[in-house]
């Protein structure tokens, strides 16, 4: 079975004559016979005088002697002049035929029979016309020397020459039949040769009866499933696969071929269309469960482990299948209606699988992405994801891209949806071969599926299968497509299904009888009916949703998690701290970097003045020492946008790299820090996917500036914010977003803290007295930290507890070098933990009586240091208390009450922030402060105890673009806060 896939395991060694002329391709396309004759004569006199590519070609031509009885179709001659003329004529014919062969390889896809509807007719491309090369009067049986091209052999007289007519017919069958291939954009000659070989030697329809039976069975399942759902739920949206049923044979053959070639697991991402069909027939999700979900009852009267849930065509699943006698794990990632944004999530999940399974050559775990034609052509995240395909720390060893080419978007024709003949052109940017195939030819679909997987395994590169099909219904089953595409849908109405066409074909060929094929369909229909009956009593359970790596972690309903410590013994901390602060002997670090590391070493030795970057490094160092892998990525995160991290050090003499966090101990866990390409959406999605695969690792993404997170808003809004509630998928992904007002203008000040807080799902009007339950019940945490030690504990908290939540950190900029922003080693000790609120801090010499405090100012982030400095200069410590809210969501009701409001009974309550009033934390904090005040003193509030706001005024833009205006605004905020 799958002879093609088996043959693809070994590299194609032979070089064809036309590909040997690769460096002379431009010359070849425009050369005249006179120039060729002159070059030939020059080669005869001195072989080294022509380009090596032409030298090899002429040598190949002469592998068969010229002085011999002329083949049939040649004009014979007796003189040496005649022999010479015959040789030159043969050479010209051979060159012209090579040009024609090359034209078919490049342009054949434009003339291929790809459209099942017959609305898009194959083009008459002039470069595919033999007349264009001077073959106008050539007889069908005219013999032409082709060397090793199209199955020829320069070492065998019989095959070195082939009939002109046979060659043209073979070219048409291979490149303009129901398969069209684009691959001459690939720069690697060996890769192009490989595809030429597969196309020209492969026979899509020369397969066994058993393979035909399998393909028919897959088609019968695809159509039978859709028909069954249409019968049972005739008014429901299901985004059915009708018209694109060949997708199921494509996926099944791809998985079977992959299993034969050593793949053990596949992660799949796809859009709506056909998703339920793939879930049931490929992923083997129980039909009873699918039918239960169609009834839309959710968790009514059932289990309490569900969140809000999602529509059935967004859901994912995972399963172990038996393919080729071996266990094969398949998983489909859940995704929202922003369809293509699942692409990087799948890639990240695949990469994590490869890491945790030791798949270093990326041959045992692969990604399959299923796209729509309009979205593949139109969505930028497609290109952003493709751009990762060959990046060292993002590559997954090649992805199988399947385009279900409906030849229409929602209601948009291709001419309005893209500027290229095919929807797949963006894949050319990464050298991916593109196989276009007529969806009504399931055997051709199976053939290109086998070739695609063999390509992936052979070259570890992306590949595209463009199944040109149609959409039998509208965008969904209740949509009316005749409003906008009347001609197309009149044609579709009368078109037999792919299954019907294949049924007729198999019966007509005598391979199967109608009774045999009917039995296959009936057996599947009976199975659906049995599962329909079972769905009536189906009850969902946690095992339907949890993946194996997540067993034992607390669900949304299990709120009794233990409080794991985040502190580290001081002797351990000092040892690893010295280790990661010491440069190797003889390593020529930049003087500035060497100074940074010397300061870190001094801080660890003294236990004083541990700055932000060192506190972060200590978190990573202690985690990998304890067996928790750490992965940090983002634009310029190795050095840090603000030149503070320096986690990768470069030798100034030879460019060698040294990463201290990889040299802690011989048995430490994996540590990866890597600069990403200039993408937010794809990279954040990738890291999210990575975090979904396994709970026992810390995955972080750092934005170059916090403002840039808006480039990944779909990933944030649709995947991170509500992923657990919708899909029951936990993630410990951490987002580091530089944030703070430093006079750098509107694009480099705000990470849009207010957006993250607005998407928090905590009720502001209910006082929360159990902080731990808060942590488990909320969708994610949002923090704005002021000390290195607290950042250390926050990062460690992400992986030491027994549940996972995403974390958003407004990381500072000016605090990175602010001397006052430092911690002592005791702050990292086992008796310390993350502090959601840091109480008022004053010098030991200042006597503070709580009942004398007239104002308590709550704030978060770097503005605290400006405020504290000004308070000290004005000697207001005994009058004004400053309380830092380090974690804003979930809001620390209990700590704010105890450390701020109840502690200072005669103080007015004020919230201070740098951001404008319509941004930042104020709209989130204000109702929660009122809830605390109500909980303490009843409904009636005195004016003095009503929370007040100090910060920038309401604005359209996050910040001013003028540095002096910024300074004036900042001074005004501090002055207003300290003026009583």
Automatic annotation (TrEMBL):
GO terms for molecular function: oxoglutarate dehydrogenase (succinyl-transferring) activity; thiamine pyrophosphate binding. Its cofactor is thiamine diphosphate. GO terms for cellular component: mitochondrion; oxoglutarate dehydrogenase complex. Keywords: Oxidoreductase, Thiamine pyrophosphate. Residues 610-818 form the Transketolase-like pyrimidine-binding domain. SUPFAM superfamilies: Thiamin diphosphate-binding fold (THDP-binding) (SSF52518). It holds the Pfam family OxoGdeHyase_C. GO terms for biological process: tricarboxylic acid cycle. InterPro entries: 2-oxogl_dehyd_N (IPR032106), 2oxoglutarate_DH_E1 (IPR011603), DH_E1 (IPR001017), KGD_C_sf (IPR042179), ODO-1/KGD_C (IPR031717), THDP-binding (IPR029061), Transketolase-like_Pyr-bd (IPR005475). Its EC number is 1.2.4.2. The keyword Oxidoreductase applies. The 2-oxoglutarate dehydrogenase complex catalyzes the overall conversion of 2-oxoglutarate to succinyl-CoA and CO(2). It contains multiple copies of three enzymatic components: 2-oxoglutarate dehydrogenase (E1), dihydrolipoamide succinyltransferase (E2) and lipoamide dehydrogenase (E3). NCBIfam families: 2oxo_dh_E1, PRK09404.1, PRK12270.1. This is 2-oxoglutarate dehydrogenase, mitochondrial. The lineage of its organism: Eukaryota, Discoba, Jakobida, Andalucina, Andaluciidae.
């Amino acid at each position: 079975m799958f002879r093609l896939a088996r043959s693809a395991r070994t590299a194609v060694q032979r070089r064809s004559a036309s590909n040997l002329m690769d460096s002379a391709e431009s010359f070849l396309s425009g050369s005249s016979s006179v120039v060729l004759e002159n070059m030939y004569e020059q080669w005869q006199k001195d072989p080294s005088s022509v380009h090596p590519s032409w030298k090899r070609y002429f040598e190949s031509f002469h592998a068969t002697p010229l002085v011999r009885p002329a083949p049939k179709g040649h004009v014979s001659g007796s003189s040496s002049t005649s022999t010479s003329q015959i040789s030159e004529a043969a050479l010209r014919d051979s060159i012209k035929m090579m040009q024609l062969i090359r034209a078919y390889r490049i342009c054949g896809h434009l003339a291929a029979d790809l459209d099942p509807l017959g609305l898009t007719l194959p083009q008459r491309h002039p470069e595919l016309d033999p007349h264009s090369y001077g073959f106008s009067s050539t007889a069908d049986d005219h013999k032409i020397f082709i060397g090793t091209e199209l199955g020829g052999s320069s070492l065998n007289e019989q095959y070195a020459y082939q009939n002109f007519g046979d060659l043209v017919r073979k070219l048409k069958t291979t490149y303009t039949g129901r398969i069209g291939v684009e691959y001459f954009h690939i720069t690697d000659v060996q890769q192009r040769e490989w595809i030429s070989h597969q196309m020209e030697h492969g026979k899509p329809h020369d397969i066994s009866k058993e393979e035909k039976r399998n393909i028919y069975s897959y088609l019968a399942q695809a159509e039978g499933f859709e028909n069954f759902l249409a019968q049972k739920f005739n008014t429901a949206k299901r985004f059915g696969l009708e018209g694109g049923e060949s997708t199921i044979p494509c996926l099944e053959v791809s998985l079977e071929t992959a299993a034969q070639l050593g793949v053990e697991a596949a992660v799949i991402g796809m859009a709506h269309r056909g998703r339920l069909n793939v879930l049931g027939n490929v992923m083997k999700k129980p039909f009873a469960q699918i039918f239960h979900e169609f009834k839309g009852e959710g968790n009514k009267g059932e289990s309490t482990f569900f969140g809000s849930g999602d529509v059935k065509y967004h859901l994912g699943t995972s399963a172990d299948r038996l393919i080729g006698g071996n266990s094969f794990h398949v998983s489909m990632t859940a995704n929202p209606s922003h369809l293509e944004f699942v692409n990087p999530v799948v890639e990240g999940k695949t990469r994590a699988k490869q890491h945790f399974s030791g798949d270093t050559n990326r041959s045992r775990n692969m990604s399959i992405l299923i796209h729509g034609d309009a979205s593949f052509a139109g969505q930028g995240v497609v290109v952003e994801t493709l751009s990762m395909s060959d990046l060292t720390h993002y590559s997954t060893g090649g992805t199988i891209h399947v385009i279900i080419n409906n030849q229409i978007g929602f209601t948009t024709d291709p001419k309005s949806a893209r500027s290229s003949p095919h929807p797949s052109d963006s894949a050319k940017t990464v050298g991916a071969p593109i196989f276009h195939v007529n969806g009504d030819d399931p055997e051709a679909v199976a053939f290109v599926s086998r070739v695609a997987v063999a390509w992936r395994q052979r070259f570890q590169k992306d590949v595209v299968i463009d199944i040109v099909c149609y959409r039998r219904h509208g965008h969904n089953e209740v949509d009316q497509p005749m409003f906008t595409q009347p001609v197309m849908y009149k044609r579709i109405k009368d078109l037999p299904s792919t299954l019907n066409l294949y049924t007729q074909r198999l019966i007509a060929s005598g391979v199967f009888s109608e009774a045999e094929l009917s039995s296959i369909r009936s057996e599947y229909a009976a199975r659906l009916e049995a599962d329909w009956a079972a769905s009536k009593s189906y009850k969902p359970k946690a095992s339907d949703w949890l993946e194996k790596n997540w067993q034992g972690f607390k669900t949304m309903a299990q709120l009794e998690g233990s409080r794991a410590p985040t502190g580290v013994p001081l002797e351990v901390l000092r040892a690893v701290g010295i280790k990661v602060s010491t440069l190797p002997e003889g390593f020529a670090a930049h003087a500035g970097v060497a100074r940074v590391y010397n300061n870190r070493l001094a801080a660890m030795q003294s236990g004083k003045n541990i700055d932000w970057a060192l506190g972060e490094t200590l978190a990573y160092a202690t985690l990998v020492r304890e067996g928790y892998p750490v992965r940090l990525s983002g634009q310029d995160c190795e050095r840090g946008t603000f030149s503070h991290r320096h986690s990768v050090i470069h030798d100034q003499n030879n460019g060698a790299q040294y990463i201290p966090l990889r040299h802690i101990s011989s048995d430490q866990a994996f540590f990866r820090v890597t600069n990403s390409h200039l993408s937010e959406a794809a990279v954040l999605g990738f890291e999210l996917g990575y975090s979904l695969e396994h709970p026992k690792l810390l995955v972080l993404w750092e934005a170059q500036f916090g403002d840039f997170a808006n480039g990944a808003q779909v990933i944030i809004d649709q995947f991170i914010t509500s992923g657990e509630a919708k899909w029951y998928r936990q993630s410990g992904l951490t987002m580091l977003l530089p944030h703070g007002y430093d006079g750098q203008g509107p694009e480099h000040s705000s990470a849009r803290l207010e957006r993250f807080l607005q998407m928090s799902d905590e009720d502001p009007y209910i006082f929360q007295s159990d902080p731990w339950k808060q942590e488990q019940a909320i969708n994610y945490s949002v923090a704005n930290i002021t000390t290195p030690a607290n950042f250390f504990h926050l990062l460690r908290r992400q992986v030491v507890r027994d549940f996972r939540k995403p974390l958003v950190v407004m990381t500072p900029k000016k605090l990175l070098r602010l001397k006052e922003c430092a911690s002592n080693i005791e702050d990292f000790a086992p008796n310390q933990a993350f502090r959601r609120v840091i109480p008022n801090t004053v010098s030991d010499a200042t006597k503070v009586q709580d009942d004398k405090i007239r104002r308590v100012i709550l704030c978060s982030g770097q503005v605290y240091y400006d405020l504290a400095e000004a308070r000290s200069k004005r000697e207001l410590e005994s009058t004004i208390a400053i309380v830092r809210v380090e974690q804003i969501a979930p809001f620390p009701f209990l700590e704010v009450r105890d450390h701020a409001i109840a502690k200072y009974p005669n103080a007015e309550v004020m919230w201070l922030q740098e951001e404008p009033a319509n941004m930042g934390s104020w709209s989130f904090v204000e109702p929660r402060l009122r809830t605390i005040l109500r909980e303490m003193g009843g409904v009636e509030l005195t004016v003095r105890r009503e929370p007040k706001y100090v910060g920038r005024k309401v604005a359209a833009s996050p910040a001013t673009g003028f540095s002096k205006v910024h300074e004036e605004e900042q001074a005004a905020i501090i002055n207003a806060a300290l003026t009583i």
